[in-house]
Design a protein that fits this description.
The protein is of the alpha+beta class. It has one domain. It is about 10% helix and about 30% strand. It has four helices and twelve strands, in the order βββαββαββββββααβ. A seven-stranded antiparallel sheet has the order 3-2-12-11-10-9-8. Strands 1, 4, 5, 6 and 7 form a five-stranded mixed sheet that branches. β10 (about 165-170) and β11 (about 170-180) form a beta hairpin. The radius of gyration is 17 Å and the shape is globular. It starts with a strand and ends in a 10-residue tail after the last strand. Mean pLDDT is about 80; it is low at about 5-15 and about 55-65.
């Protein structure tokens, strides 16, 4: 599974959350070297950290929507036929000066289909505005935040399990994450929660989850944070 983070245009509202960093991977010990790893936010820093530009820039050509889960799109990247999950959160073409003034992002959109322009889902930046959406409140864990899952209910179909979740802290969007059925041991940034942990964060727990977890050999998750230190993420 390849994860892409690409820019889109948005407006910054004064009462929206300030996103002043970008960190990946939750861990039970926030100060450990393997948890809350800061990610590059400029092209210069990405090159320094040995990131390589993907030919085609992850554009819409070559993607197609799956019948059951539209968030997974397929593309050939560096000669590898891969499934992709894509999130957008910053303005296109901005310079380093804008990064310092605007922060990591000014909005969050999850691509839910083959076309990033027409199929991207806008995410509310404040928890008070999420009631009109299909996002449902899950559990909160200190150093993670309050989880929200999309269209979650007891009789949910695991074949259409939405592979992303939202993270709120003090009523503001603090980050988001990926949650994919199956254990993909391809990156040290991934997390592999036991079945008890997966079930503890879903309210309610869909009846299909325990069986699907066993069949797939686990779940793979990744928490991504836009601001604040982990010890300030409270319930």
């Amino acid at each position: 599974v390849l994860l892409c983070f690409l820019p889109v245009e948005s407006l910054l509202l004064g009462n929206d959350p300030d996103w002043d960093t970008f960190k990946a991977t939750w861990g039970p010990t926030p100060l450990s070297s393997g948890a809350f790893i800061e990610q590059p936010r400029t092209e210069k820093d990405a090159i320094k950290d040995k990131y390589q530009k993907i030919a085609g820039s992850c554009n819409e050509s070559g993607h197609y929507a799956f019948d059951k889960q539209r968030m997974f799109n397929r593309d050939v990247i560096n000669g590898i036929n891969a499934y992709t999950l894509t999130a957008y959160f910053v303005n296109p073409g901005r310079d380093e000066k804008s990064l310092k003034s605007d922060g990591t992002g000014t909005g969050l959109w999850l691509q839910n289909g083959a076309n990033p322009l027409t199929d991207s889902m806008a995410i509310p930046l404040r928890e008070e505005n999420i009631g009109s959406t299909k996002w449902t409140k899950g559990a909160c864990f200190p150093s993670m935040g309050v989880h929200y899952w999309y269209d979650n209910h007891l009789d949910a179909d695991c074949d259409t399990f939405f592979p992303s979740f939202l993270l709120f802290n003090r009523g503001k969007l603090t980050g988001f994450g990926w949650s994919v059925v199956g254990k993909f041991e391809y990156s040290k940034r991934f997390e592999y929660p036991p079945t008890a942990a997966i079930q503890s964060f879903l309210i309610p727990v869909p009846k299909c989850i325990p069986k699907r977890y066993e069949e797939a050999g686990g779940f793979t998750t990744m928490h991504l944070y836009f601001n604040t230190e982990p010890w300030n993420l409270i319930c």
